Structures are given as structure tokens and as C-alpha cells.
Amino acid sequence: MQTREKVSEYNPQKVRTAGFSNANIVEIIAWSATYMLTNFINNAFDTEIDFPVVNPEVA
Questions:
Q1: What is the pLDDT along the chain (59 residues), one digit of tens a residue?
Q2: Largest CA distance in the chain
Q3: Per the domain annotation, does 32 fall within a domain?
């Protein structure tokens, strides 16, 4: 939110060089937006978690 929908240090050519097509990049952005929107909605309505919570391990 702080970068106003601009990805810092994003270079699409580097992503393409890594083997991703424009369609792949669009799909990555679309899924990211989907998960971000889902998180906003869950936070706004304080949705109850109905599955076992998994805490990340400390590295």
C-alpha cells in the first residue's frame, strides 16, 4: 500500500529472462491481487479461522 501499486525494483525483462511469459506475469499479478483482496475482506470482517492454524517456523 505504501508504494501505490508500484512494485519496487520491478524489472519485467528480468522476469522474462527467468523464463516467465507475459501471460505468466499477468497471472502472478492477478493471483497476488486476489489474495490481497481476500486478506482485506477477512481483516475487515474479522473472519473466524475454520481450519487448524499453522505458524511458520523460525529460521
A1: 566 667 767 788 899 999 999 999 999 999 999 999 999 999 999 999 899 988 888 76
A2: 42
A3: yes
Total-model pTM: 0.66
Q: Cα 59 to the chain's mean position, in Å?
A: 22
Nearest partner of 40 among 4, 1, 8, judged by Cα: 1
The domain tally of the chain equals: 1
Interacting residues of 12 by C-beta distance below 8 A, sequence separation 6+:
25
- Kindly state whether residue 18 falls inside one of the protein's structural domains: yes
Whether 59 is covered by a domain: the verdict is no
Helices (H) and strands (E) in the chain, counts: 2, 0
Asked whether residue 27 is domain-assigned, the answer is yes
Q: Which residues constitute the domain of residue 19?
A: 12-43
